[in-house]
Amino acid sequence: MADGNHAPAGKGEASAAAATLAPAYRMRIVFERKVVAPYRDTYRGELGQAQVELLELLYLAGPLRQHELAGELRTTKQHVSKMIGRLEQLGYVAQGTDDGDARSRVVALSAEGRAYVDGHIAEGSKLARELFSHLSDEERKELDQAMLTVTRLLEKA
């Protein structure tokens, strides 16, 4: 509109606009809504997003030093320390001394923390299966293969 106000785009207009977005950005938007959201939504506000990311990082990587967590999560050691304190109170993580450097603290997922993340993975997987239930068996296999391919390629980056 000439006056600077924008009316909501119609479905066709939105699709056309989405098609012109950079492929990586478009994939992020769709992937976030269709794949990530079912998993993220299982936490239902129990923990903050950064706390969930910390737990999932430990789940995938195993025990890490606080400064490694800060680097991976792109935040400060102080913020990581606060998150660890909260997660430790909940029984989801435990801290120990680094065998190689007594000044460093190593953070590990506890058995309770692993069970907590396992439960959310199972629930998120169920929600994702429901989300893709309208696809044929062949389309679901194609989607699974495409996600595995994208994951493999991105892990190399």
Structure description:
- With 157 residues, this protein is mainly alpha-helical.
- The chain has a domain at 48-144: Winged helix-like DNA-binding domain superfamily/Winged helix DNA-binding domain (Arc Repressor Mutant, subunit A), CATH 1.10.10.
- 66% of the residues lie in helices and 11% in strands.
- The chain has 7 helices and 3 strands.
- The radius of gyration is 20 Å and the shape is elongated.
- The chain starts with 10 loop residues before the first helix and ends with a helix.
- Residues 1-8 have low confidence and may be disordered.
SSE succession: HHHEHHEEHH
CATH architecture of one domain: Orthogonal Bundle
Helix content: 55-70%
Kindly report the CATH topology of one domain. Arc Repressor Mutant, subunit A
Q: What's the total count of β strands?
A: 3
Q: Class of one domain in CATH?
A: Mainly Alpha
Structural class based on helices, strands and sheet pairing: mainly alpha
How many angstroms separate the termini?
A: 42 Å
Strand content: 5-15%
Instruction: Name the CATH superfamily assignment of one domain.
Output: Winged helix-like DNA-binding domain superfamily/Winged helix DNA-binding domain
Stretches where pLDDT falls below 50 for ≥5 residues?
A: 1-8
